[in-house]
Design brief:
The protein is an alpha+beta fold. The protein folds into 3 domains: 219 residues, no CATH class; 43 residues; 110 residues, Domain of unknown function DUF1214, C-terminal domain (Jelly Rolls). Helices cover 19% and strands 24% of the residues. The strands form 5 sheets. A 6-stranded mixed β-sheet has the order 4-5-6-11-8-9. Helix 5 packs across helix 6.
């Protein structure tokens, strides 16, 4: 599903071989209005960056939420079957450069979410990220992702997050087509309108903490997800331009290289239009689309010194001042997790083992089945330390992430 580039119009599409894209015109939806249920899917759906991720089978669970779930599913199956009768539209792909990359990349990700059933409703991720099918670079293994795209011309959207009895982390991030964050909510009912979003489409990304090493905890997180409610009076339509894949990929690659040169030393990356640094925001759209604002999650990256990557390293974390949790995840040079024999790609303060002094010693490389808090490393490895709901000490710079060290 994700191993090809697509841009399309919801409800009425057809592949155009000449453009290798999805093109279409609108077809009005007759789905019931008002409260909408939640669609289940295998993970946070989207399209890959420039990596060649193999195509996998669609293994979404049946649509169960809500009494009208079966009716909606039948309608959608019938609608999709009818789409094959449509004719291709004559539209030239839009050339992509730095001036329109943010919009093009956001539309691309939104199209992937819509393709997976997340239009006018929330598509649930039910399991930790499948390492064989990572739709976004630098995903994590600490939260289950759910997402949905909404046509703001169809009316305001209300998202209700259930209470989590154990107080675990949960958030709903609202993003615009310009990759700006309208808000991040943690509980209760929150409503946003076209005036708040300021672009036709908005995407909702919901994160729920889970311990990826504990099947019972994953099941508990799933129960929380099933109580998420989304309401909108109408569904609307999804129509985005067709973008030129070649120029989009070249622009992204250039921005990734620029981000590597900056080494994270740039301004505010995510937030409202008034809060962001435009250059930092442009780079982070390529480096990590859907990133949370710094007040919600602060990120610290690191990598071994050139020539030392094959040697074991360690990171010692003590009293990390977060109000939620922290985690360390290892990626390859392209920003993807790589499967290993131990099945370990991340350590957090829930599944990690503390040392006698209360600190966590995270080891990189030279791991075996008896190792503690040890993450095997791929070629070109690097890591990200995430601190969710960071304290004022992190945000002010008073607390600094410890340096990566060689193990003697």
């Amino acid at each position: 599903m994700y191993g090809r580039f697509m841009h399309w119009s919801h409800r009425n599409w057809r592949r155009n071989p000449a453009q290798n894209a999805i093109v279409a015109g609108p077809l009005q939806s007759n789905l019931p209005s008002g409260r909408r249920s939640i669609r289940q899917s295998s993970l946070w759906p989207s399209l890959p960056h420039w990596s060649n991720i193999p195509e996998t089978k669609d293994h979404r669970a049946p649509h169960k939420a809500g009494p009208k779930g079966r009716e909606i599913m039948i309608y959608k199956i019938a609608a999709l079957a009818g789409l094959m009768l449509c004719t291709a539209a004559n539209a030239d792909p839009v050339h992509v450069g730095p001036h329109n990359f943010v919009r093009a990349e956001s539309d691309r990700y939104m199209a992937g979410i819509v393709e997976d059933g997340g239009f006018g409703e929330i598509s649930l991720g039910r399991e930790p990220v499948d390492l064989a099918d990572q739709p976004v670079i630098r995903m994590n293994l600490d939260t289950i992702y759910s997402s949905g795209v909404f046509d703001m011309e169809a009316g305001p959207v209300s998202i209700t997050l259930p209470d989590a009895p154990d107080g675990r982390y949960m958030s709903a991030q609202i993003l615009t087509q310009d990759h700006l964050t309208v808000g991040v909510y943690h509980d209760g009912t929150n409503t946003f309108s076209a005036e708040d979003v300021d672009t036709r489409y908005a995407v909702v990304i919901i994160r729920v903490f889970m311990d990826a090493t504990d099947p019972d905890d994953i099941a508990y997180a799933n129960q929380i997800q099933e109580n998420i409610i989304v309401e909108q009076n109408d569904e609307g339509e999804f129509n985005v331009p067709i973008y030129d894949e070649g120029s989009l990929n070249r622009t992204r690659m250039a921005l990734l290289q620029l981000g590597a040169l900056a080494r994270g030393n740039f301004g505010t990356r995510m937030g409202t239009r008034e809060e962001i640094d435009p250059i930092a925001h442009l780079i982070v759209t390529a480096v990590g689309w859907g990133l949370l604002p710094e007040a919600e999650a602060a990120y610290f990256g690191g990598a071994p010194v050139a020539g030392h990557a094959a040697l074991p390293h360690e990171l010692i974390l003590s009293d990390v001042p977060t109000n939620a949790f922290w985690s360390v995840t290892v990626y390859n040079a392209r920003g993807f997790m790589v499967a290993n024999d131990l099945g370990v790609n991340a350590i957090n303060n829930v599944n990690g083992v503390q040392s006698a002094d209360g600190s966590y010693r995270v080891q990189f490389g030279d791991c075996d089945e008896n190792s503690v808090n040890c993450i095997p490393v791929p070629e070109g490895w690097n890591y990200v330390l995430r601190t969710y709901q960071p304290s004022a000490a992190i945000l002010s710079g008073e607390w600094q992430a410890p340096a990566l060290q060689l193990i003697d």
